[in-house]
Each structure stands twice: as structure tokens, then as C-alpha cells.
């Protein structure tokens, strides 16, 4: 059997359905007593890796997360979905501001080289920082081919190449890339499964390695840019009701001044 080890990125973020609150000092968003979940694009990356294992293509899936101790819950979720083991790089730094894409990419490079990975799948972006940079930087650091915004993936039988379709502004772009490679998952790649209760229980027994930042040699986690301020979007003004077409045209012309 040809071995194929897949690493997936798992980021813990504020749940997409939560209304975000800005801290009074405008230094960031309030993370206290807020529901946190696996980043939606990371869920898609996990699902795609699991599909590869179900097709007998991938032989092992390693979920990797950087963040505080609560990230282990997210890694357990990934393992309940189907990942084989987890690696948690523990830090108290804010992952939505202070742990930045270049440091994340260097960390994944370190893990990929240590684990001798054959493919890395990460979400195209996180819904907190929205940087959309980690996958691209990681491919550059490893000198691996990359497919960003992947919408479809087919790995060859010999596991030496993959056919991928990627989302672009002009439509869908079909590529063939050699492996090992880095993929970033887009929305249309798949529909992530829900973890079943038996698998959630099994995930508790799966191995999880906890590393400190100091264990990731050659990576400077110092933030390279600083958030100056975060502000709430401007409150939208209420609309008005008009009683005739003439009144509508008058308001558009004289008050809104759009015609």
C-alpha cells in the first residue's frame, strides 16, 4: 500500500451565527462567554481528508490546531468526524489577531516536515481574521504546488498527482498538480458531516499531542502588524414610506440626491 499522510488545519473561531461584540476599548472583539466553533472552511478541509481516507487514498489524517486549551475541543470534533490524531500547539495569544498567517504557515511547515506529510488541506480563510494567506504562504515555504479555493479534488491511483477544480472570478479553473501539495478548501468542495455520538466517544480515546510554542523551532510568533482599532459598523438609518410615485421621485431627487 502507498502511504499517504494528510494534515488538516483546525482553527477555533467565534461561531458564525453569533453576533460579534466589540470591546469597550476597541482593541478587538469580545471573546468572553461567546460560543466558539471550528472555522467553517476548516470543517470542509477535515471532511475532504476523511473522504480521501474512505476512498482508501489517505492512510492517516492528522488534525493540527494552534490556540488556548479550548482548541482541544475543536481537535476532538475533528477526530470525531474521522481524523486519526491531533496535534495542539498551545498558546495564550489571541488567534484572531496576534497569531498571524506567516507564523501559522511556518508552524505547519515544521509539523509537515516532522510528520513527512503528503498533502495539507486547510480552509481558504478563517471567519475571524479573514486573512486568506496561510495556505499560500505554506506552499511557498515548502516549495510545494498549491491549489487555492478548491471546489473538487481527485487524487490519482498512484498518489503522485491530483486533478482539482478551483473557484475563480472568471468561473471554475481545472488544474493537475503533482503531490505533495497544499490545498485550501472553498465552500463548494463538500458538505461536512456531523459527528455522531459513538464517534464523539471514540474521539476521546484518540491520541492528542500537546506542544508549546518553544517546541516549534525556527518560528517567531511575534505579531508583525498590530490592530489599531476595531469598530462596530455604522448603524443603518431607518427608511421611509412614500404614498406616491411623485413623492418617491421627489425624495430620490431632493433628499437622497441619487437622481
Can you give me a brief rundown of this structure?
26% of the residues lie in helices and 25% in strands.
Percentage of residues in helical conformation: 25-40%
Q: What are the secondary-structure elements, in order, as H or E?
A: EEEHEHEHEHEEEEHEH
Oligomer: single chain
Q: Kindly estimate the percentage of residues that lie in beta strands according to DSSP.
A: 25-35%
The major β-sheet equals: 9 strands, mixed
Q: Kindly, what is the distance between the CA atoms of the first and last residues, rounded to a whole number of angstroms?
A: 69 Å
Overall geometric form? globular
Strand order of the largest sheet: 9-8-7-10-6-1-4-5-11
Question: What is the secondary structure topology, with strand pairs?
Answer:
Elements: E1 5-9, E2 12-14, E3 36-38, H1 40-54, E4 60-67, H2 71-81, E5 85-90, H3 101-115, E6 119-123, H4 134-142, E7 146-155, E8 161-168, E9 171-178, E10 181-185, H5 197-203, E11 208-212, H6 245-255
Parallel strand pairs: 1-4, 1-6, 4-5, 5-11, 6-10, 7-10
Antiparallel strand pairs: 2-3, 7-8, 8-9
Helix pairs in contact: 2-5, 3-4
Labels describing this entry:
11 strands; nine-stranded mixed sheet; alpha/beta; 259 residues; two-stranded antiparallel sheet
Describe this structure in words.
It is globular and about 75 Å long. Strand 7 and strand 8 form a beta hairpin. It has 259 residues and is α/β, with parallel strands linked by helices. The protein is built from 6 helices and 11 strands. The termini are far apart. The mean pLDDT is 94.
